[in-house]
Amino acid sequence: MAGVTSINLVEHALLVSIQDDITDTEILELQDRLSTKISENRVDGVILDISALEIVDTFVGRVIAQLAGISRLLAADTYVVGMRPTVAVTLVELGMYLPEIRTALSLTHALAQLRRV
């Protein structure tokens, strides 16, 4: 999978790195892998690292929402880390409202938030 570098277990969370060139096929594979790993590891959260994304469109916004939805249904909170200011502005301009997703400045901040839950 060229678009996803990895899914790694960090403490009680899964860290998912999403790359700029992710495709529809890779998203479907990622959804399957992620749901399996959440169930197998009984994690508290999923941390989506989008620091590699320089721009976003509705496809990427939909991907983030779908991954968060899967995580939520499997009782795991979702945090997005590494969001660039231009990405945040674009998501707002596209009308992408993602209420089930929390944001954190870094992996460290996301893990600290998960520890408090």
Automatic annotation (TrEMBL):
PANTHER family: RSBT ANTAGONIST PROTEIN RSBS, RSBT ANTAGONIST PROTEIN RSBS-RELATED. Pfam families: STAS. Residues 3-114 form the STAS domain. It comes from Sulfitobacter dubius. Gene3D superfamilies: STAS domain (3.30.750.24). It comes from the Bacteria. This is RsbT antagonist protein RsbS. PROSITE patterns: STAS.
